From TrEMBL:
<keyword id="KW-0004">4Fe-4S</keyword>
<feature type="domain" description="Uracil-DNA glycosylase-like">
    <location>
        <begin position="28"/>
        <end position="192"/>
    </location>
</feature>
<keyword id="KW-0479">Metal-binding</keyword>
<keyword id="KW-0234">DNA repair</keyword>
<keyword id="KW-0408">Iron</keyword>
<keyword id="KW-0411">Iron-sulfur</keyword>
<dbReference type="Pfam" id="PF03167">
    <property type="entry name" value="UDG"/>
</dbReference>
<keyword id="KW-0378">Hydrolase</keyword>
<dbReference type="InterPro" id="IPR005122">
    <property type="entry name" value="Uracil-DNA_glycosylase-like"/>
</dbReference>
<dbReference type="InterPro" id="IPR036895">
    <property type="entry name" value="Uracil-DNA_glycosylase-like_sf"/>
</dbReference>
<protein>
    <submittedName>
        <fullName>Uracil-DNA glycosylase</fullName>
    </submittedName>
</protein>
<dbReference type="InterPro" id="IPR051536">
    <property type="entry name" value="UDG_Type-4/5"/>
</dbReference>
<keyword id="KW-0227">DNA damage</keyword>
């Protein structure tokens, strides 16, 4: 039988043996198992790796704020990622100074963790999966773009579960205009209503 500890060991092994690209540490999912509600993000950043938990950095603050606004807390939901290590790019400046920044996980990196995420979904056995951004959306559904499907619930035949696509919380940082903000806010209200029907 699979366990969270098995998943942790597999993530550790895959990450520590990955040599194709630069990475900056790895984490597992967080939250109760089993759990009716599963959020799936993209990949951890620096703060997540430091604290060993998904969504605890800047995007995590936005995420938790909205989660609390619909009367949910981190203790009631499971949160995980599509890619379990932190994809990074390292740039050397002309002065010799190096900067490390996050990058979007590449297709092979998403594939690397396909089995792990599938196994986590089986273990968590959620009624609904909320995808945060395009990376988990494309990994778990046939939708091409978040813009086409966000804020609605779908029954996914392959997963045999409901899926509710949302924008990634960090999209709020890039789209500071009121229209986007209102739409993002409304999506959380829609999620709240959907959760009440499950
Ligand atoms: N963004 C993600 O997609 N996942 C995290 O864990 C943190 C930020």
């Amino acid at each position: 039988m699979n366990t969270l500890e098995n998943l942790r060991l597999k993530i550790k092994e895959l990450s520590e043996n990955y040599t194709d690209e630069e990475i900056g540490g790895w984490i597992t999912g967080d939250g109760p198992v089993p759990c009716n509600i599963l959020f799936v993000g993209e990949a951890p950043g620096k703060t997540e790796v430091e604290q060993g938990k998904p969504f605890v950095g800047m995007a995590g603050e936005t995420f938790e704020e909205y989660l609390n606004s619909i009367d949910l807390t981190r203790t009631k939901v499971r949160v995980t990622n599509t890619c379990f290590f932190r994809p990074i790019k390292i740039k050397e400046g002309k002065t010799g100074r190096t900067t490390v920044s996050n990058r979007t996980p590449k297709s092979p990196e998403i594939k690397l963790f396909k089995e792990i995420l599938d196994e986590e979904i089986e273990l968590v056995n959620p009624k609904i999966i909320i995808t945060l951004g395009n990376i988990p959306l494309k990994r778990l559904t046939n939708f091409k773009s978040i813009g086409d499907c966000h804020g609605q619930v779908y029954f996914n035949e392959e997963l045999k579960r409901y899926v509710f696509p949302m924008y990634h919380p960090s999209a709020l940082t890039y789209n500071r205009n009121d229209t986007f903000k209102k739409m993002y806010h409304d999506d959380w209200i829609k999620l709240k209503k959907v959760l009440e029907t499950l």
